[in-house]
C-alpha cells in the first residue's frame, strides 16, 4: 500500500471549506501519515478494530482542535489503512 492520503469530497464542503480544500487535504494527509507511522511503529498484534480506532485518535491528535472536531473520515477507508498496518504493508 502506498502512503495514505486524504481526499475531501467537494460536494460535502461549505464554501469556505471548498476554498481551503487543498491546504486542508494536505494537513489531514500529513496528520494521517504521521499517525500511521506511529501506530505501525508500536503495533504489537492488536486486532484491526483497535488499530483503526487508534489510527483515528492519533490522526485527530495531530490536528488543530477545530479541524479535529469536524473531521469525519470514511471509516471504511481508515480501516483499510489499519488492515495494511496489521499486514505490514504500510511503512
Set out the fold topology.
Layout: H1 15-19, H2 21-42, H3 48-61, H4 65-70, H5 75-86
Question: Your description of this structure?
Answer:
The protein is mainly alpha-helical and 91 residues long. The protein has a domain of 56 residues. Helices cover 65% and strands 0% of the residues. The chain is built from five helices and no strands. The longest helix has 22 residues. 18% of the residues are buried.
The number of distinct β-strands equals 0
Question: Residue share in helices?
Answer: 55-70%
Radius of gyration: 13 Å
**Shape summary:** elongated
- Helix/strand/pairing class, anyone? mainly alpha
Short description:
By secondary structure, this protein is an all-alpha fold. It is built from five helices and no strands.
List keywords for this structure.
single chain; 91 residues; mainly alpha
Amino acid at each position: 500500500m502506498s502512503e495514505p492520503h486524504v481526499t475531501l469530497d467537494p460536494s460535502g464542503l461549505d464554501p469556505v471549506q471548498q476554498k481551503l480544500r487543498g491546504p486542508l487535504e494536505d494537513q489531514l494527509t500529513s496528520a494521517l501519515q504521521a499517525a500511521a507511522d506511529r501506530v505501525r511503529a508500536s503495533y504489537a498484534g492488536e486486532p484491526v478494530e483497535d488499530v483503526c480506532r487508534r489510527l483515528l485518535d492519533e490522526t485527530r491528535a495531530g490536528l488543530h482542535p477545530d479541524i479535529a472536531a469536524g473531521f469525519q473520515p470514511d471509516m471504511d477507508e481508515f480501516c483499510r489503512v489499519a488492515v495494511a498496518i496489521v499486514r505490514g504493508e504500510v511503512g
